[in-house]
Amino acid sequence: MTFRAAVITFPGSNCDRDMATALEAVSGQPALRVWHGDADLPDRLDLIALPGGFSYGDYLRSGAMAATSPIMHAVIAAAQRGVPVLGVCNGFQVLTEARMLPGALLRNAGQRFICRTVDLTVANTTSPFTAGFAPGEAIRVPVAHHDGNYYADAETLDRIESEGQVAFRYATGCNGSARDIAGVLSANGRVLGMMPHPERAIEPAAVNAMGGADGRRLFANILAAFASA
Amino acid sequence: MQARVLVRLKPGVLDPQGRAVHNALEGLGFAGVEDVRIGRLIELDLADGTDHHTIRAMCEKLLANTVIESFTIETGAAG
């Protein structure tokens, strides 16, 4: 069985190629590319990735228009069948707007676009995306966003924390996110949204430069979960 | 018919844009500004007789994100 991943491209996505490159580098299989206007996904998928970018120019709210795209009906149906879904940056915003993940992403508290490599703390190690990390482990992954300030009401925050749905936290704050949340899992752990860009941190040779290689481990985790399924 | 949908951030949701505008107003010398919150006005031209329930559904499905925003709907004749 070969690993089959699909990367969705929305109008204004700009990290779709990076995502496909990362998936191919880690899995050895080319990622299938899917246009947002398609009604159907390729069959037998092992991962669906929603990339970063500025879909629809962030009209109305970041991710709001993309969440209404024809392909999202198929993405939601696939997620309900248990296909893992990874949304990075704008992809995370799309997942919250599609109500596939709790909460919302607001404008950064400092009003500024933040583009740098940040320290994250791994908060969940039981999902297909995070099982290869150690609890509380520190990893470094780049962020590049204007609307990454995670918000949910206190009751929702308490619930997702107690249910293990917080995947990653910013180690030293970043954008004003509630409880420093950088990545959130669905209740069944099969959908992950995160603002940091693991697909920009896949080259071991870049360990001392911008990015590093910790993002590669997230993709390796997905592969390991696929291999053991 | 026309509908005007006013979308606001819910109380307690941080509004960095509003804060920046607040600071700018003070920088221009306007005294007595206690808070600034920025919302969005959406004007809809609709077929006559579109019912309130339908407009409400538009707001809940797309025009507002009810996790962070509230909305009010005003309807009237076009003009």
Could you state the CATH homologous superfamily of chain B? Answer: Phosphoribosylformylglycinamidine synthase subunit PurS
Amount of helix of chain A: 10-25%
If you average the pLDDT of chain B, what whole number results?
Answer: 94
Oligomeric composition of the shown chains? heterodimer
Relative strand content of chain B: 25-35%
The spatial strand order of the largest sheet of chain A comes to 2-1-3-4-11-10-9-6-7
Q: Spans of chain A with pLDDT under 50 lasting ≥5 residues? A: none
Give the overall silhouette of chain B. elongated
Number of helices of chain B: 2
CATH architecture of chain A: 3-Layer(aba) Sandwich
Strand content of chain A: 15-25%
Side by side, the strands of the main sheet of chain B go: 2-1-3
Major beta sheet of chain B, specifics? 3 strands, antiparallel
What is the straight-line distance between the termini of chain A?
11 Å
Known CATH architecture of chain B: 2-Layer Sandwich
Number of helices of chain A: 5
